[in-house]
Amino acid sequence: MSVAAARPAAEGVTLEIDGTELTVPRGATILDACRSMGVDTPTLCYLENLTPVNVCRVCVVELEGSRVLVPACSRACEPGMKIRTDSERVRLSRRLVLEFLASSVDVSLASEMQRSMIRYQAQPERFGSAAAPHAAGERDRATPGHHHAPNGERHQTVEQPVKVDNELYVRDYSKCILCYKCVEACGSDAQNTFAIAVAGRGFDARISTEYAVPLPDSACVYCGNCIGVCPTGALMFKSERDMRDEGTWDESRQTKADTICGYCGVGCTLTVHAQDGEIVKVSSPMDHSVTRGHLCVKGRFGWQFVGRRDREEV
């Protein structure tokens, strides 16, 4: 008998979600179970190619017998669980999280979050005027008063000026919701560079390089994986930021096409985004077995030569 045949089949876990009983593989999370039965559970800090960090609390569900709501993205399914995903308690919690975030930072480019706000009827204006985006070209001006902590001190996340210290990508932390996705992608989940981390605590918490040095002086290798996972536009291709500032960025006129990166033999899949015949940015599909959404500096940024018309003929 082969070793493989001698191994017992992985046991399933049977639980109940919204009155429906189902069996999922052992080790599956509540979010996995919800998605397997078509239950739309919102997430912000969760991404399939990153380790769950449990910071946004938008995915919480009600578990029978639990004093508190539990995060669906990281809580493993257990036999006999009875879960409610759309109770009034769950809806209220999700709505409040969305309202707190949208009243503190600019979420105008967070498309998934915008859909969730409509779904849960979030009204961030209840906690003050909505956070305004930085004006085009603005670099150093402080943001409005509602970006300040209750004690009057500056909110260190959103009060940072727009950072344009390289030609590849822009950091605008007035849009940062501290989901930690960029930190995870820069760390052991993908790049293992550890160029950025969360600095400070409480209202002083913000994403920062070591000693807050400019990116060119940090450990950053410009893979751009932090851009690929950012859900709000806080991290953005400089090409996209420049076009948005000029008013020429128009996703309705953009096309996408997959190709294989030609810089090495790894075989990474590139999704090329083009507008009016010109490449405007490059991403990678998360379901690709090679990249899982991640790329290196050449794959993500090394496409500018395609549009050059002044290349000398060999």
Can you describe this structure?
There is one protein chain. With 314 residues, the chain is of the alpha+beta class. Among the domains are: 10-86, Ubiquitin-like (UB roll) (Roll); 134-249, Alpha-Beta Plaits (2-Layer Sandwich), CATH 3.30.70. The protein has helices at residues 3-6, 30-36, 88-104, 111-119, 181-186, 225-229, 238-246, 297-301, and strands at residues 12-17, 20-25, 60-63, 70-71, 82-84, 169-171, 196-199, 206-209, 235-237, 254-260, 269-275, 278-283. The strands form 4 sheets. The protein has a 5-stranded mixed sheet, sandwiched between helices. The longest helix is centred in the N-terminal third of the chain and has 17 residues, at 88-104. The chain is globular, with a radius of gyration of 22 Å. The chain starts with a helix and ends in a 13-residue tail after the last helix. Mean pLDDT is 86; it is low at 1-9 and 136-154.
Can you give me a brief rundown of this structure?
The chain is of the alpha+beta class. The chain contains 8 helices and 12 strands.
E-strand count: 12
The coarse overall form would be globular
Order of helices and strands: HEEHEEEHHEHEEHEHEEEH
CATH architecture of the domain at 134-249: 2-Layer Sandwich
| β-strand amount | 15-25%
Q: Class by helix and strand content?
A: alpha+beta
Strand order of the largest sheet: 2-1-5-3-4
Distance between the termini: 63 Å
Mean pLDDT: 86
The amount of helix comes to: 10-25%
CATH topology of the domain at 134-249: Alpha-Beta Plaits
Number of helices: 8
The residue ranges in which pLDDT falls below 50 over 5 or more consecutive positions are: 1-9, 136-154
CATH class of the domain at 134-249: Alpha Beta
Largest beta-sheet characterization: 5 strands, mixed
